[in-house]
Amino acid sequence: MSTHFFADTSVMLGRSLRHVTRSMDTIITVTIMPIAFMLLFVYVFGGAIKAGAGHYVNYLMPGILLIAIASGIAYTAFRLFTDLQSGIFERFHSMPIARSSVLWGHVLTSLAANMISVVVIVLVGLLIGFRSSAGVLAWLAVVGILVLFTLTLTWIAVIAGLSAKSADGAGAFAYPIIFLPFISSAFVPTASMPGPVRAFAENQPVTSIVDTIRALFARQPVGHDIWIALAWCAGVLVVAYVLAMMAYRRKIA
Amino acid sequence: MEASTTALQVRGLEKSYDKVHVLRGVDFDVARGSIFALLGSNGAGKTTIVRILTTLLKPDSGTASVGGFDVGSQPARVRESISLTGQFAAVDEILTGRENLIMIARLRHVKHAGQIADDLLGRFGLAEAAGRRVSTYSGGMRRRLDIAMSLIGSPQIIFLDEPTTGLDPEGRIEVWKVIQNLADSGTTVFLTTQYLDEAEKLADRIAILHQGTIIVSGTLANLRKLLPPAKAEYVERQPTLEEIFLAITGSDNSDTKEPR
Ligand SMILES: Nc1ncnc2c1ncn2[C@@H]1O[C@H](COP(=O)(O)OP(=O)(O)OP(=O)(O)O)[C@@H](O)[C@H]1O
Ligand SMILES: [Mg+2]
User: What whole-number distance in Å separates Cα of residue B68 and Cα of residue B109?
Assistant: First the structure.
């Protein structure tokens, strides 16, 4: 039944995007929190943090974007959970449509909504002094990594949305992910951290992603970091996708 | 019954959830173009049967063919033949009534989605509320929208799981008319209901599901024969379906205290 996949997915995407645009509060929540972190770190803690030359917001930006995405996907889990609860998920599944379009509609919506908040945050960053010397290719690479990161987290959100028992539970999985950038190179260089914390920070996925994006923004060589970052994202994406499909089969069995 | 005149054929259907053995060998046939009512107390397994027949749930054993297609091996073909109005209104709360209908029309790839939506909104008394978000609708309005959504694309077989629960008398009569019209135009209607007068009024055949099997099925006249004519000596009166139902299920309940 893949014949209608694209047509059906576009209907699902249109529906889910309406949900996003009709609850602007969710977009605002998703962007306000990272922007608040950005202002807090730049204007309150920034003076005390030694993170190399240049404006601290340049150092901060990659981590802030990842935090925004990590909090944005909680709504994907929530929307999926609501669909299951309301019975509309079952209605779609009793119809002659490409069944996978039901999930893909949510996944693409997540991508669109998160890219909107990324753009908003970068614009606010520009206002408070964020500057990048990156060329078109480097920007494309940044967008590519953010899209991959969003897809990875979105499939984790799909697992949560499909298996949650309550609406709160559906979003709760995002908290540890939102927290990961704090124990990474996102806000301060890992060299300043005590041994075990530093070991964790340097070997968890966020640090490699943050370092790669920061290097791309600053027009510096990305080194090995980009491969580590891509491997993390791709690896977790595959695992999350497989687990999401298992959760999905359990749901429709 | 021959395949060509049979819309639904169910044989030996069994289903358990964890420890509850809900269906213990369910058999029935539904003729094309007829209205079939499935009765049963709360928890009897009516919704479970509907979910199996609409490819949402797999039976543990037994077979079911819907519109000539097997639910297990040809679920996609089954879905092309059917439409489901589940027990609880499955509508999109954030979209408007009209947007809900257009969405379903697009998913069913019918032409003139907007016009179909407007027709249905008029037919179901929702024209005024068409542009409002469904979250502002009353329960009855949601239910009517839900049923309207199931009519799009003219499926051959329509499943209605307690379609009139929560509707006011006027709304019920409206839905009854819709169901009657569907059957008149050749659509097969599979209906579950708690209202025995509803089955009495609409159904060509009635089946009673009790403790996992269909304990009786037939036309209302058939079912009436199961009971001796009412004992009343003074007035001649046929037993109502409600009396038949209670007599059959009630006696079973009292002497077999079987935990389900
Ligand atoms: N997903 C499930 N997990 C466990 N038990 C279930 C599940 N769904 C239904 N049941 C049980 O199966 C039995 C039949 O449920 P079903 O919903 O089919 O009944 P019903 O006849 O539609 O009842 P009602 O008239 O209340 O709608 C009930 O005992 C119910 O508790
Ligand atoms: Mg039910």
Answer: 23
